[in-house]
Design a protein that fits this description.
With 437 residues, the protein is mainly α. 69% of the residues lie in helices and 1% in strands.
């Protein structure tokens, strides 16, 4: 019996590592080749060896057809614009939604089925990943040399100043991810919402510590991560009823108490400077700027239609096939919907939005099925709303409807639940918190 338990534990640890590599560490290079390439190749081999090709195509047929349409549309558009085809092209980048996103997610879900990973197991896999990221992040804040090793060598950047100035680099604690300043903190918040809605974590203290961990990871990287965090909390409070509100209130009190205790400990000048910096960066320069007379530069940029001022009718329909990059100076914005419209026009925009509507619909349908079977918490039926609202708001600021940490999490979640809905474990159903109507 002990041997069996040991094997199960090892398999779950290996599964956790695979999920970590898929979600966050896919940019790490081995001999100059990103891990995502190895994961994609092994995933295709896995599907072929286990005879899963027909089932995979049947499961994702609509999504596959639309992804291929997007690829060929952009490929021909880029060819017409005289853009030489390379792996840097947007067409090649978007086909990775299938190759680096959906296929590996499907394989991970099939592995989870084989080693009998249920919803509760999956939650703790994600909690373990967040814990690892938190430890690495804290180490990077207080050990600059360690940060340089992780940021420059592990993640393949030869110069940290490519993305930020010295002051920002010295204060941030990136952990291991690819898009530090956008989708990593965004995904961390979505994972916390997933854990919250699952009702797997019963301990209020544990949930409070997880909330603190997520808050710090977001603050150390990018404020955009607070959007899905607040959306998740708000939707949970609105739909969870009295029990859910008590749960959030209790956790909030525990968090306040923990910070109260920490205030009695002297952490040194470095820690005090760090706290002051983030108080200014998150609160004063962040949230407070929305209500100031000057306003927020970030908000002002959200309606920067000047970039499209010289667009012809055909440009609005088909786009220009090019990607807006910072090197274009005045002709640049990081606003997602404007970038997508500039590159592929309304055709690309509507195609991408339709693609992710299909993923969202699949998530909604399978969650309803699992809730009806009693396999997951009844409150979880509202979690897809967190995903949808967060993605819509996120795309207003940046391009989210492509391949990144947040969409990888969506693909994995949908695939896991699709497979879970097809499996009947020989164990009692997941015991969830019964909410009063």
């Amino acid at each position: 019996m002990q041997v069996v338990r040991f094997k199960v534990a090892i398999l779950k640890i290996l599964f956790t590592i695979l999920v970590f590599l898929y979600l966050f560490a896919y940019g790490i290079k081995i001999s100059g080749i990103p891990i995502s390439v190895f994961i994609s190749i092994m995933s295709v081999v896995y599907i072929g060896c286990y005879g899963l090709v027909p089932k995979f195509i049947k499961t994702w047929l609509n999504e596959i057809v639309l992804i291929l349409f997007i690829f060929y549309y952009l490929f021909f558009l880029e060819a017409l614009q005289g853009i030489e085809f390379s792996r840097e092209n947007f067409s090649f980048y978007l086909i990775r939604i299938l190759i680096d996103g959906v296929i590996p997610a499907y394989v991970l879900s099939d592995i989870a089925k084989k080693i009998k990973i249920n919803t509760a197991d999956f939650v703790y896999v994600l909690v373990a990943i967040l814990s690892i990221e938190f430890i690495i992040s804290v180490m990077m804040v207080f050990a600059p040399d360690f940060k340089s090793i992780i940021f420059i060598y592990v993640n393949g950047y030869s110069d940290q100043h490519v993305l930020m100035n010295e002051q920002l680099f010295s204060k941030r604690g990136f952990a291991i991810a690819y898009t530090y300043l956008a989708w990593f903190p965004f995904t961390v918040a979505l994972i916390f919402s997933f854990c919250l809605f699952s009702n797997v974590i019963k301990s209020k203290i544990f949930l409070s510590l997880l909330a603190i961990t997520v808050f710090i990871l977001i603050a150390l990287n990018a404020r955009i991560g607070f959007i899905p965090l607040f959306i998740g909390l708000l939707i949970y409070i609105v739909f969870s009823g009295v029990q859910g509100i008590k749960r959030i209130a209790s956790s909030a009190l525990i968090i306040v108490f923990i910070f109260y205790l920490l205030s009695f400990f002297e952490a040194g000048d470095q820690f005090d400077d760090l706290v002051k910096y983030f108080r200014k960066w998150v609160i004063e320069d962040g949230f407070s700027s929305f209500f100031s007379q000057e306003g927020s530069e970030t908000v002002k940029d959200l309606a920067n239609f000047q970039i499209l001022s010289d667009f012809s009718f055909s440009d609005f329909i088909f786009g220009r096939g090019d990607i807006l990059v910072p090197e274009k100076e005045n002709l640049y914005t990081d606003v997602g919907y404007i970038q997508t419209l500039y590159t592929g026009g309304l055709i690309l925009s509507l195609s991408l939005y339709t693609l992710f509507i299909l993923f969202a619909k699949r998530l909604i349908d399978v969650v309803r099925t699992l809730c009806a079977k009693g396999i997951i918490s009844q409150i979880f039926i509202y979690f897809p709303l967190v995903i949808c609202v967060s993605f819509l708001i996120g795309h207003v600021k940046l391009r989210i409807f492509e391949i990144n940490e947040a969409t990888r999490f969506l693909f994995l979640l949908v695939s896991f639940f699709v497979v879970l809905s097809e499996v009947h474990y020989d164990v009692p159903k997941f015991v969830y918190l019964k909410l009063k109507k």
